[in-house]
Design brief:
Order of helices and strands of chain B: HHHHHEEEEEEEEHHHHHHH
Order of helices and strands of chain A: HHHHHHEEEEEEEHEEHHHH
Number of helices of chain A: 11
Distance between the termini of chain B: 56 Å
Number of strands of chain A: 9
Number of strands of chain B: 8
Structural class of chain B: alpha+beta
Low-confidence stretches of chain B: 411-415
Distance between the termini of chain A: 33 Å
Largest interface: A-B, 48 and 50 residues
Radius of gyration of chain A: 21 Å
Shape of chain A: globular
Helix content of chain B: 40-55%
Oligomer: heterodimer
Helix content of chain A: 40-55%
Strand content of chain B: 5-15%
Low-confidence stretches of chain A: none
Number of helices of chain B: 12
Radius of gyration of chain B: 22 Å
Mean pLDDT of chain A: 97
Chain lengths: ~375, ~425
């Protein structure tokens, strides 16, 4: 039994931590909040570190179909509150394309995403869908030479900057996936004034926008669900990384900030707050690592396992996000201090990928609503 | 990450399964389903079977009555036992002998001590109690004031110990005793072993809030034990006691999960039977319990993996202890809320376990759940309270500074 990363994974972790430590400090994240993510950093992550190829099989240009490898990347990116397109372009869209399977449109598109030549955003949420992907009121019709999509998608991550959109739309044969170039006629995107500026979101309106069908007509739901199961684990991994980082920053502060003649971390009121946060983060970390192993070894109950990860990592991250502000006192409430970046990331991630309550409800359904 | 059994662990799992299939009756539904008398009889026979099989102290060397197995096999053994509803430690005092003082002796003891004590722990000839806490030394253990003095060839001990779980069944006690009165706090303490059946020792039971006599207090009035009956050098008792906490950390983890999983399954059935399965609040709490139990599995696996790879024990025991005991308290809160008014009275068959979740086959009665609810209050206190565990995590894992110590009052208090 081994419950730890292997040598290659540890090496990848080390490489990433050192790369991101110098290339993407929180000051760079703050710049990205105003100007958008730095394409040069993303390009180097793809070309020098190879983050886009990890987690996909070699047959499509990846380095091996291992979720655990990808967890290493997501965790490290989480530590820096990465504002880049790893989640949107790689963990979401590239994975969906892989789940769809080979095809004339998917193959070159997937290659371009993995090479970092293009980026893509998943447009699957609607006004009434909550955090669950839905074709909703968006529809696609076949026209001479292709398809046209019309409708309105909400909360599209990197929706104003991605080269292409992967859109879930209804057809006569059921929900289907379409590629829509963001600059195409009939596509309008509006950046939202978001709570968490490290995660830029957009509303997307489509009016007879030209589209290419991805996979079979009516077969959009399954690949999306399969990709989503893995995505939950990766998002949880990212949260574990972010949570670990803000715990470190807060612990450092508690060790050095002195009040009443002693470091505030020596007071049990602060010490226990941080100890509890650490406990939840450690537990969430084990859940994510276990999930990586479970996916890589085709274990049963992956749906429940993926929801468990997001439920516990979401709570652990929000817990330390709030505790960090509290432990820092007034300085933690300032714009200048980095604590709020973590709190906002914790908050936005929960809502974008489903709250812990929502995931627990799904777990409860699996446990309580069975026929037995 | 490799969470599969190794080939040898898999083979051993099937060996254990085969043994249990042969040994247990065909209609076996778990020791929890036996009535009190049948259960008492079963436990005696089961313990002897474990002794014969050398599975009672599976990791101890064969020469001391152990099985000579590795931690991986011990983990498999314990997990399979719990899954089949047979206890890992059949006698109430086995925990103190086989989990606590036995491994400590293996680490610190002389060859003579090991040869004398270990085989007798296995046979059950010696039944052990733990003598740590005192009326004035609970969480602040090293504030203890029971004194020991070497007089000729014997230690003479005076003072009082308290909170000996199931101490009334014991005939030996391992006790932390202040033997170097001039030394500073923890450095003046030694670990002594004393036979209980002597005029200088009196054991009285204490009734707990469950209504049962589960605890004892032990009075030492010129109690005596041979000069050899000290573990480690004089003054090393504090270190001896702390090392003890790191032992066997890995092998119990599978059993821990299996036990809580069986208990949660029992609660899920209760929720369904009571028609509470569609209540959104109950659903949230059941799912929360599921996540906690699963994470106990992962934390346990990580612990086992660490032990197998030879990493020195770290603060994992604090993490698991805190996580486990707080979870169990919350789980029993939920059980009572599901029972509703039926939790107002002890109804139905009583529960089994005095510590930890009831075994496979145990009743899901209000009487059983009430007992679990009450005993779960103790688990966040004994073995280091949740508050002490949080201090340990804060200081040893996060590196936060210790609370400045107020000048000790021990000397005034002890004089």
């Amino acid at each position: 039994v081994r419950f730890a990363l292997d040598e290659d994974q540890s090496a990848l972790q080390k490489t990433l931590r050192s790369f991101l430590g110098t290339q993407q400090p929180l000051t760079a994240v703050r710049r990205a909040m105003e100007q958008g993510y730095d394409a040069g950093t993303w390009s180097r992550l793809v070309n020098e570190v190879g983050v886009s190829a990890v987690g996909l099989p070699e047959s499509v240009g990846g380095t091996g179909d291992s979720l655990l490898d990808q967890i290493v990347i997501a965790t490290e990116l989480g530590r820096t509150l990465d504002p880049g397109p790893f989640l949107s372009s790689i963990a979401m869209v590239a994975r969906v394309l892989h789940e769809v399977g080979p095809g004339q449109v998917t193959d070159p598109w997937l290659s371009a995403l993995l090479a970092g030549e293009r980026t893509a955003a998943l447009a699957a949420l609607e006004a009434e869908s909550g955090a669950s992907p839905s074709s909703g009121t968006t529809t696609a019709v076949q026209v001479a030479g292709g398809w046209q999509v019309s409708g309105a998608k909400r909360f599209v991550l990197h929706g104003t900057v991605a080269d292409d959109l992967l859109v879930l739309a209804g057809t006569d044969a059921g929900p289907s996936l379409f590629r829509v170039p963001r600059n195409a006629e009939g596509v309008s995107t509006t950046a939202l004034e978001v709570l968490d500026e490290t995660r830029p979101l957009a509303d997307v309106v489509l009016r007879d926008a030209p589209a290419e069908l991805i996979g079979e007509q009516g077969s959009g739901t399954e690949p999306l669900a399969a990709a989503l199961r893995r995505l939950r684990v990766l998002v949880a991994a990212e949260q574990v990384g972010s949570a670990g980082r803000i715990l470190e920053l807060t612990t450092d502060y508690a060790r050095t900030r002195s009040q009443f003649g002693r470091p505030i971390g020596s007071f049990q009121a602060i010490k226990h707050l941080l100890a509890d946060a650490m406990l939840e983060i450690e537990a969430a970390k084990t859940a994510v690592l276990h999930a990586g192993w479970a996916f890589d070894h085709d274990q049963p109950d992956l749906e429940v396992i993926s929801r468990l990860c997001l439920a516990v990592a979401g709570d652990a991250f929000l817990g330390i996000g709030k505790a960090a502000i509290q432990a820092h006192g007034a300085i933690g409430f300032t714009w200048e201090h980095d604590a709020h970046l973590f709190l906002k990331r914790a908050t936005s991630t929960r809502q974008l990928f489903g709250s812990s309550d929502e995931h627990r409800e799904a777990i409860a359904a699996a446990i309580l609503d069975s026929a037995s | 990450m490799d969470l599969d059994d190794s080939a040898s662990a898999r083979a051993f799992r099937s060996e254990v399964g085969g043994f249990l299939a042969d040994w247990l009756p065909e209609d076996w539904t778990g020791s929890g389903s036996l009535a009190a008398e049948a259960r008492a009889d079963f436990l005696v026979r089961w313990r002897q079977a474990l002794v014969d099989q050398r599975w009672l102290a599976p990791t101890w060397p064969v020469e001391y009555g152990g099985g000579g197995l590795g931690q991986a096999e011990a983990a498999v053994l314990q997990e399979e036992f719990v899954r089949h509803g047979v206890p890992v430690l059949p006698h109430p005092s086995d925990t103190f002998a086989l989990v606590l003082i036995g491994p400590t002796l293996l680490h610190w003891g002389t060859d003579e001590q090991k040869a004398l004590f270990l085989p007798r722990m296995v046979t059950g000839e010696h039944r052990w109690a733990q003598g740590y806490s005192e009326p004035g030394a609970g969480s602040d253990l090293f504030n203890l004031s029971t004194r020991g003095e070497l007089v000729g060839a014997e230690w003479v001990v005076n003072g009082q110990k308290v909170w000996q779980t199931d101490g009334q069944y014991a005939n030996w006690i391992f006790a932390l005793v202040r033997t170097e009165p001039e030394a500073e706090r923890s450095k003046g303490i030694s670990m002594l072993l004393l036979p209980i059946d002597q005029p200088g020792i009196e054991v009285r039971t204490i009734r707990t809030m469950t209504g049962k006599e589960e605890f004892c207090e032990v009075f030492f009035d010129d109690a005596r034990t041979a000069a050899d009956n000290i573990i480690g050098p004089p003054g090393a008792g504090g270190r001896v006691a702390l090392t003890l906490l790191g032992f066997e950390r890995g092998s119990a983890s599978g059993a821990l999960y299996a036990g809580y999983r069986i208990e949660l399954d029992r609660l899920v059935e209760l929720v369904k039977e009571r028609g509470r399965g569609q209540d959104p609040l109950v659903r949230q709490r059941v799912a929360w319990c599921h996540t906690r139990v699963e994470m106990l599995k992962y934390l346990g696996l990580r612990n086992l993996a660490g032990a197998l790879s030879g990493e020195p024990p770290g603060p994992e025991s604090s993490i698991i202890k805190l996580y486990e005991s707080e979870y169990h308290a919350a789980l029993t809160d939920l059980a009572l809320d599901v029972l509703g008014v039926d939790a107002l009275a002890y109804q139905g068959a009583p529960g089994i376990a005095s510590l930890g979740p009831d075994p496979l086959g145990a009743p899901s009665s209000s009487a059983a759940w009430l007992n679990q609810y009450l005993t779960a209050r103790a688990a966040t206190i004994y073995g280091g309270s949740s508050q002490v565990q949080r201090n340990t995590i804060g200081e040893r894992v996060l590196g936060l500074p210790r609370e400045p110590r107020v000048a000790t009052s021990r000397k005034e208090g002890a004089s």
